[in-house]
Amino acid sequence: xxxKLAILAAVIAAFAFTCQGADAHGRKxxxxxxxAVAIGVGAASTATYFAINNWSWxxxxxxxxxxxxxxxxxxxxxxxxxxxxxxxxxxxxxxxxREAGILLGSCVLPIVGGWLVNEAYNAHPExxxxxxxxxxxxxxxxxxxxxxxxx
Length: 151
What we know:
Layout: H1 2-18, H2 32-52, H3 68-91, H4 97-108, H5 113-123, H6 130-150
């Protein structure tokens, strides 16, 4: 009974932390192409991890001499090295620090790592370089100014 109450309390607390106040500015979402790159490279990294062990799901009987932790480390480092390169090619531009951080977070902690990095950047806009903040603000004002001229 106590265990069920503890689990229920943990679930309620988790939902309480997901509630957000209204904030009309500053929330940046992850681009679809960045998400696709994170999923694709992450899947390839996972495949590499299992390929090192000859696709054996149970036990660790490979001939390479690597431990599970060593294979995980190699796959993670490979993912962290390759994903920014692939994203740069897909986007056809240099990555922002936020995008690179999202990709690295997705490699270290799959599924939620990129989301955590993005939310950390949302909570701390001062982490973005001034040039990136200025560019976004300038583009935003330029678009609104253009709309105002047309009317």
